[in-house]
Amino acid sequence: MNTTDPISNTLFEDLRQAPMATVREAIRSGAYQGHTAGIGLGRLQGNLAILPADYALDFFRFCQRNPKPCPLVGVSDTGDPMLHTLGDDIDIRRDVPLYNIYRDGQLDGQTPDITDLWRDDLVAFVLGCSFTFEQALMAEGIRLAHIEENKTVAMYRTTIQTQAAGPFRGPVVVSMRPMRPPESIRAAVITARFPHAHGAPIHIGDPAAIGIPNLATPDWGDPPALADDQVPVFWACGVTPQAAVQEAKPPLCITHAPGAMLITDVPEQGPGN
Amino acid sequence: MNTTDPISNTLFEDLRQAPMATVREAIRSGAYQGHTAGIGLGRLQGNLAILPADYALDFFRFCQRNPKPCPLVGVSDTGDPMLHTLGDDIDIRRDVPLYNIYRDGQLDGQTPDITDLWRDDLVAFVLGCSFTFEQALMAEGIRLAHIEENKTVAMYRTTIQTQAAGPFRGPVVVSMRPMRPPESIRAAVITARFPHAHGAPIHIGDPAAIGIPNLATPDWGDPPALADDQVPVFWACGVTPQAAVQEAKPPLCITHAPGAMLITDVPEQGPGN
Q1: Kindly report the CA angle at B12 between B8 and B18, in degrees rounded to 5?
Q2: How large is the average pLDDT for residues A128-134?
Q3: How many CA atoms lie within 13 A of B125 on its CB side?
Q4: Mean pLDDT of B191-215
Q5: B184 near B56, Cβ under 8 Å?
Q6: Counting one residue from A and one from B, how many pairs have CB atoms under 8 Å apart?
Q7: Are B239 and B176 spatial neighbours (Cβ–Cβ below 8 Å)?
Q8: Identity of the residue in A60, A85, A202 whose CB atom sits nearest the CB atom of B57
Q9: Which residues on chain A are in Cβ contact (under 8 Å) with B158?
Q10: What is the rounded CA–CA span in Å between residue A174 and residue A153?
Q11: A137 CB-near residues (< 8 Å, 6+ apart)
């Protein structure tokens, strides 16, 4: 994330108050390359995975089979960079603040604009993300320590396996938020309303039961602080498909950089029908 | 449906009481080719669409973009007739009572076994169906006239358009169930719990508002009787993807025959994750 850059931090504060057209232009022009938490409030944000068409059918199946970690909210037509179902003018080549480029499963660089990399055989998949349900939790008065402390949520590999599809396979990755038991119950009920954004938790309590040996050493994100009266609450996490892509090793895969999501035009409640 | 055949009707009554292994064997052997309403209670049933891989990515997108009429519950691997995510031993070539064969969008025959037609490039899509939520409605005491009268639910083309994907496009088709207003509200709440089976209604009340000129002349199914104290309640319907397939005119498409669904091994609540 670029929010440690002082200039970006100033811009970030501006964008938090800005109308969406300003936000989109700042991202599209490359002026803002930072994270999108707290920007474009009320709009659905999404994880991104762009893959060659040869891999698209299997990745589609992977998402269908693993809807909690991989809740699809939009898929482009092959070769078409415009995401017609998520807005009137969303160009997936430029409307994400920062992109990660993976070649053969390995990170090979970052860029704020993938216009030069776009090809006629690419398919863009947009997956719901936890920003959606975190907004809902905070709106209902549930405090989230990692946000208040400006940290990255703790994420862990589990021993729960995804249902494989072609070359896509691997463990379910979870994010963890500490809560008091009454909050954890309310949080389960609230997040169940957002199946397009990971839905209800997949586990509450004993980390060892899902193969996490030590909460203090997350695989991604910052170590969490768990108070004596708190239990760990685990949600399926959008890092799951990224791990599956690294397993599949497609010649090219383009994702959002961590935290730098696509902000869509559709409401947080999800693309209706 | 073959339930007008006296032999099938006797078998149907037997199968209503039978354990699932008996039901599956009766279907797999071709002995039972009738409808599956009321059989295999508690298990998720699904509509079927089998398409060549050339069409699979667009059909997948069509379902993703139109989740209320086309709620995907399972997708086979290309060329693999076993639906591993919906049961331990579901062979999509034989486990549907009766199949419709479409060539270039036109019905070209029916058969209880498609083993001879199976090819290495075929992909099977299973979509949730209204049987699931109808069971839930009846379990909560909401009476469904078409079931009590052994009729087919009334279905209508609407002026609501699906979101197209490649060659797949066309109107949203709805099914209609008459209810008193308090029931319609309860029914909306109950069916919202089944997003994998068309979910909440898409319309209640005035048929003309969604382009239905006359409830007495449905496009499919039997004419309904609407009492003075009832309102029409409309759900997105699994005929929608069939209409889209007829529009797309793929060289081959195999579906279930109307009412003769795939009975899966997963619970009615849907394939969990």
Answers
A1: 140
A2: 90
A3: 31
A4: 95
A5: no
A6: 52
A7: no
A8: A60
A9: none
A10: 10
A11: A144, A187, A190, A191
The answer to whether residue A160 scores a pLDDT higher than 70 is yes
Q: Where in chain B is the domain with CATH 3.40.1640.10?
A: 43-128+245-266
Integer angstrom CA distances of residue A236 from A174, A270, B48, B96, B167: 5, 18, 29, 34, 34
pLDDT band at A2 (very low <50, low <70, confident <90, very high): very low
Say which of B56, B64, B165 has its CB closest to residue A72: B64
CATH 3.40.50.880 given to domain A6-129+248-267: no
CA distance B66 to chain A (A): 6
- Identify all chain B residues contacting A57, using CB atoms and an 8 Å cutoff: 53, 56-57, 60, 78, 123
pLDDT band at A5 (very low <50, low <70, confident <90, very high): low
Kindly state the average pLDDT of the residues A205-213.
97
Q: Are the Cβ atoms of B85 and A75 closer than 8 angstroms?
A: no
CATH architecture of A131-241: 2-Layer Sandwich (3.30)
Which positions in chain B touch A69 (Cβ < 8 Å)? Answer: 273
Cβ contacts of A83 within 8 Å, gap of 6 or more: A74, A76, A90, A91, A92, A124, A126, A262, A264
Task: Tell me whether residues B273 and A75 touch, CB distance under 8 A.
Answer: no
Residues near B261 by Cβ (< 8 Å), separated by ≥ 6?
B35, B36, B45, B46, B47, B48, B96, B97, B129, B131
Q: CA B176 to CA B154: how far, in whole Å? A: 6
Contact A61 B67 (CB under 8 A): no
Best residue of A51, A54, A63, A64 to probe chain B, by most B CBs closer than 10 Å: A64
Phi, psi for B21 (deg, rounded to 5): -60, -40
Mean pLDDT of chain A: 92
Options 3.40.1640.10, 3.60.21.10, 2.40.50.140, 2.30.40.10; CATH of B43-128+245-266: 3.40.1640.10
DSSP A193: T
The percentage of chain A sitting over the pLDDT mark of 70, rounded to a whole number, equals 96
For CATH 3.40.1640.10, list the domain ranges present in chain A: 6-129+248-267
Kindly report the pTM of this predicted structure: 0.92
- Which residue of chain A is at minimal alpha-carbon distance from B202? A273
| ipTM of the modeled complex | 0.89
Comma-separated ranges of CATH 3.30.2040.10 domains in chain A: 131-241
C-alpha–C-alpha distance, residues A166 and A201, integer Å: 27
Interface test with B, best of A77, A158, A169, A273 (most B CBs within 10 A): A273
For residue B126, how far is the Cα from the chain centroid?
A: 9
Tell me if B57 and A61 make a contact (CB, 8 A cut-off): no
CA B27/CA B101 separation, integer angstroms: 18
Residue B106 CB-density burial (10 A; 0-12 exposed, 13-18 middle, 19+ buried) = exposed
pLDDT at B189 over 90: yes
DSSP letter assigned to residue A116: G
